[in-house]
Amino acid sequence: MRKIGFYGGKFLPLHQGHVYAIIKASTMVDELYVVLSQSEKRDQALCKGSKLPYIPSRIRLRWLSQLTKEMPHVKVVEVEDHDGDEDYNWNEGALKIREVIGQGIDVVFSSEIDYDPIFKELYPEAKHMLIDEKREQYPISATEIRNKGVFHYWDYIPDVAKPYFIKKVVILGTESCGKSTLTRNLALIYNTNYVREYGREYCEDLGGCDGIILEQDYPIIAYGHKLKEYEAIKQANKIVFIDTEAVVTQFYSELYNQKHQQVLNEIARIQQYHLCLFLEPDVKWVDDGLRVHGEQLVREENNQRLKELLKENGIEFVRISGTYQERLEKAIEVIGGVFEGV
Ligand SMILES: NC(=O)c1ccc[n+]([C@@H]2O[C@H](COP(=O)([O-])OP(=O)(O)OC[C@H]3O[C@@H](n4cnc5c(N)ncnc54)[C@H](O)[C@@H]3O)[C@@H](O)[C@H]2O)c1
């Protein structure tokens, strides 16, 4: 007879203790249901005043789905279980869990001895199996993570969940204002990775961009850049530094092709950065072979236009200027003030 088990939780957030228990449980039954018990109201209340902003259930479901994607006998299901004002109605919860599993339950897994009488009553036919009750493998709890923040317990956050928490810092500015240098330096200092300006790579591939870049190249650049961000975030360590975004691409589309493109506005609209650092063009112009607007007056006009475009797109930024040393110091100061524990 096939053995059916389930392991439930709020996974707010998912941590390595949960992962350990899920993997272990998966080796003990023929079919394991990982049940996300969620209620927006209850989970919002739980996160309120903590260091963990509420995490929508879709995100938590996505983590669990990614975690178990190569385990066909593990099924991830969601149960919305808030009824009325009660914190958690165990009876209602159990009914819904039974309904979603849709077959007899042989084992209920948890690491909570206190759940024993509850599970015995709700699932009398099933055995309650405790996994690492003392939490020796991973001495952590979601409550503790909510209290101190995910960055405090970063090593306990599974790789599938980490990208959700990465702080995205984008560095903006016109040509030759030190963006790529600052982006790289910050990434090295914060021991993380960074995203190079994809437009540069694209232009280099064409052998330069003076007079040859077409209107249709810009959306490819903007989306290509997004894809690089998506990949970089998967490997980042708490924070990621990004050189340029879609409004800067719009700026170049206007500058080189005299085209303001709606598609670039749309890409800009769905971007979500936690901090934008705007570099003023007051460092020496460096001609790298791809740049064409070196006169100071033109640099300032361009700078003004980029700021206007950012404003039109509702993007707020912190201005950074001065020598390379001052820029670096200012950026570190701003980052330290905005993010705790990076
Ligand atoms: N207590 C509640 O308010 C509540 C709310 C919703 C659902 N539930 C029910 O209780 C079950 C568990 O929910 P929860 O609130 O405890 O969820 P949770 O997300 O806090 O924990 C999920 C499970 O992981 C275990 N766990 C936590 N840290 C661990 C570690 N370091 N190592 C190993 N295991 C660890 C917990 O004991 C629990 O069994 C659900 O399936 C549901 O039936 C309870």
TrEMBL record:
GO terms for molecular function: nicotinamide-nucleotide adenylyltransferase activity; nucleotide binding; ribosylnicotinamide kinase activity. One of its GO terms (biological process) is NAD+ biosynthetic process. Keywords: Kinase, Nucleotide-binding, Nucleotidyltransferase, Transferase. Residues 168-327 form the NadR/Ttd14 AAA domain. NCBIfam families: cyt_tran_rel (TIGR00125), PRK08099.1 (NF005988). This is Multifunctional transcriptional regulator/nicotinamide-nucleotide adenylyltransferase/ribosylnicotinamide kinase NadR. The gene is nadR. PANTHER family: NADR_TTD14 AAA DOMAIN-CONTAINING PROTEIN, TRIFUNCTIONAL NAD BIOSYNTHESIS/REGULATOR PROTEIN NADR. The keyword DNA damage does not apply. The keyword S-adenosyl-L-methionine does not apply. Residues 6-147 form the Cytidyltransferase-like domain. It holds the Pfam family AAA_28. InterPro entries: Cyt_trans-like (IPR004821), NAD_biosynth-regulator (IPR052735), NAD_NadR (IPR016429), NadR/Ttd14_AAA_dom (IPR038727), P-loop_NTPase (IPR027417), Rossmann-like_a/b/a_fold (IPR014729). Its EC number is 2.7.1.22, 2.7.7.1. NAD(+) binds at H15, R42, S110, S111, E112.
